[in-house]
Amino acid sequence: MASRVSDGMHARKDALMHCRSLTVALTMLVAATTAMGQAGDLTDGVRRLISSHKWGEAKVGVSVVDVTSGTTLASVRGDEPFVPASNMKLLTSGAALMILGPDFVFKTKLVLKDGVLVVKGDGDPSLADPELLEKMEPRMTVADMLAALTTATTQAGVTKLDALIVDDRVFDRVLVHPRWPADQLSRPYCAEVSGVNFHANVLHVFPGPSPSGPGHPAVYSLQPPAPWLTMEVRSRTVAEGNNAAWISRDEKGRTFTLRGDIRHKALSPIEVTYHEPAGFVANLLATELGKAGVDIPSSNVRIAKDGADPEADVALTEGRVIAVVSTPIDEVLRRCNTDSMNLYAEALMKRMGHAVTHEPGSWTNGSTVLRMILTEKVGPGAAASTIISDGSGMSRDNGVCPSTFTRWLCSMAADPKLADIYADSLAEVGTGTLRKRFRDAKLRNHLQAKSGYISGVRTLSGYLTDAASGRKVAFSVMVNNIKVDSAHTAALELHEEVVQLADKWLTQRAGTPPLKSGG
Length: 519
Known about the structure:
Blueprint: H1 2-51, E1 59-66, E2 72-76, H2 88-100, E3 105-113, E4 116-120, H3 130-135, H4 142-155, E5 163-167, E6 202-208, E7 219-223, E8 230-237, E9 244-249, E10 255-262, E11 270-273, H5 277-291, E12 301-303, H6 310-318, E13 320-328, H7 329-337, H8 342-357, H9 363-377, H10 380-385, H11 402-413, H12 419-424, E14 446-454, E15 457-465, E16 472-480, H13 485-509
Parallel strand pairs: 4-5, 5-12, 8-10
Antiparallel strand pairs: 1-2, 1-16, 3-4, 3-13, 6-7, 6-11, 9-10, 14-15, 15-16
Helix pairs in contact: 1-13, 2-7, 2-8, 2-9, 7-8, 8-9
């Protein structure tokens, strides 16, 4: 009997130990399941955020990914293509950085040979960009830039030139994308794209009241100075009210008309694009050299001929470089993404096309290179679902899935040579296109993002980074087919709400090991 009691006690003890082991195992299973469930739970949270707004006919897509593991934290229509607007710059700038490299420098050269002066373009979009000139140490103006080029020429002993040639052949001469809105081509965001660019390919017009008083035509000043252009003044000076002036231009971009009412001297310019940047630079430099006493026949102030140009080619092969204007790629990327400069994105698109094909850079070969990089870094499926029309997102023909953006961001973050340059090119709270956004969000992690807007489209994609651990979340929130103002407001609110949701997730898990990839 004693033996049987002892055996029973052992049996109960074994059963108890088994139950405890089962409890521990179940607890671990529940913890693991909860951890994996938390990753997917952001989808439910995102759906709730979306459903809290009235969208009308608008379509919403969201993707959120843990960059460290590649785990998808949320996906709502994440694999459906959306019109990206300026989020397209994320792909263009990243691909250009991969192709050209982090040490790449744009170089515009002045080359002199036996009375022939050639401006050799490299596709630099930043040459004499007034925003960048103001940030230089010491600060420069457009006049300073022109004076430096003129001085370099005169100090080389030049008093007479047989020819002044601007060589823009690094790019093709399709200056305007065919899918850009034709009624907006005078706007700065539709500036032409050339192998030689100057002053962001935009004129700054500063109108002011006539010294003769109300009723008389307004006066104006122009930057850069371009006396060969025609400015028709149909603007009048008024005694009351505020300035209400604008500028129109003809299709060739050579005749401009100043219209409206002027009461005060303008402190900020009216901006309008000009036509054929390479020709503009040729005329501009010829004018400044003429002021410095350099004689140039006007008949030989020109742009390089398509294909072979013996006069220019001999000078470039055998001539002496007398000046170089250099711009590092990180400055170009920052202006492209933080300030969302379309010219910069398109120049990067064409420049990487030229780098790979050794042909004039174009939207055709640039988009081919971008698709090649997408295939390599994100996968053939993502590349196949992406429609590439231009590099800036002005074209409504572009199409990108939210998940393609987040996977692209993960790929960029995984490259130790490129990750910081790329991420640092994006806007932060209080800067660039995020200057007035996320003011009340109280984010605990570092936000770097690219916004996007064209009519009917609002997008935002980027990173949240925990400063202590370096752990990142990539996100993309895309809203298309916006028909009413309330949906525009909802889209902007959703951007911030999704970022705040991801910010909370990252804050809670920044110190924990990353989940294994689940999609």
